[in-house]
Every structure is written in structure tokens, then in C-alpha cells.
Amino acid sequence: MYKNLFKPFLDFIIALTSFIILFPIFITVALILSWINHGSPFFFQPRPGKDGKVFKIIKFKSMTDEKDEKGDLLPESKRLTKAGIFVRKYSLDEIPQLLNVIKGDMSLIGPRPLLVRYLPLYNDVQKHRHDIKPGITGWAQINGRNTLSWEQKFEYDIWYVNNLSFLLDIKILFLTVYKVFKKMEFTV
């Protein structure tokens, strides 16, 4: 009942409220990135969602679209801006994903949506990460994020899918907020 009825309702209400509260930050970051990137502040990318259905995730663009003389994009290290580093460090690039939650493509909490090209690599157990909507944050993110191996991420994702509950979602949400603010604390 929670997974199919209350979770989508709470996702919508919390995402909409959060977006309204964060709107001044959203607009400020969008304007700064538009100026720095000389174009769109947003990055759209296809990602697999519930049941593997592909949707377009929206994030703030932390890199420019600069190209070399052949027309190929420069390496990421050359395109990542100081503003982009800041936006990534404080997870501000995730704010636009609230629109994905409001739209119904994502949940606040769930396995992070990986790239579409990884779909053929999942084994039968790993495919279960798509039994629910992907999330902006999840069990793997609060337990190591990018320090986890591929296998560990999937173990955490599948564990979450199998143990999904209101209390677990509340725990993940509060730990996510705590970790974001803790990052800010060390740099101020």
C-alpha cells in the first residue's frame, strides 16, 4: 500500500514543496550556468526508469559544450567549470530532478537511474532495481555513493527494493540532507 499509493503521493507533495522553496536557488543557478555555459543551463539524458522504461533525466549542466577543431567535445576535465564543480559538490545539479519527480518519472528515494547503455549488463537479480521508480537519492548514495563498486551499488539497490518502507525512506531522506549539510559545514 505504501509503495503504490502513499509513496507516489508523498513524492509529489514533497517534490513540489521542495521545488517551490528551492526556486530562488534554482533560478540563480540556472542564470549563472546559462551565462557561464553560453547556452542552456540544463542537461537532459535518457535513463531507464521503472520497468526499464526510458525517460529524460534533467540536471543542471556542470560542463560547457566546448569542442576541438574537429568538432569533438573536449575532455570532461577541460569542460568542467568552477561553477560546475561547486554545483556538483553541493548536489545543486540534482535540484532539476524534482521536476522528474513531479512529472512521475522518478521518486525522491530509490535506486539512482544509471545510463541506458548499462541495461544489457544487468543480471537477473540486478534487473530488479527497475521494479520501482528510480530516485534522486537512495540507499547506495547514503552508504558510499561513488566509493562503492558496481556490485555493491546493486546490492544496496536490490536490498532497498526488497525492504522499501516509509520508515526506510524517511531515514534515507534525513541522512541525505544531513550529508549535504555536512559537506557545507567543512567548507565554510
Structure description:
The chain has a two-stranded antiparallel sheet with strand order 1-2. The longest helix has 36 residues. The radius of gyration is 17 Å and the shape is globular. The protein has one domain. Helix content is 51%, strand content 11%. Helix 1 packs antiparallel against helix 4. With 188 residues, the chain is mainly alpha-helical.
Radius of gyration: 17 Å
Query: Biggest β-sheet, characterized?
Result: 2 strands, antiparallel
Beta strands, count = 4
> What sort of overall outline do the alpha carbons produce when their principal axes are compared?
globular
User: What would the average pLDDT be, to the nearest integer?
Assistant: 92
> Helix tally?
7
Assign a percent range to the helix content. 40-55%
What share of residues are in beta strands? 5-15%
Number of domains: 1
Structural class: mainly alpha
> What distance lies between the first and last C-alpha atoms, to the nearest angstrom?
43 Å
Order of helices and strands: HEEHHHEEHHH
Name a few traits of the molecule:
single chain; 188 residues; mainly alpha; two-stranded antiparallel sheet; two-stranded parallel ribbon; 51% helix; globular
Quick overview of this protein structure:
The protein has 188 residues and is mainly alpha-helical.
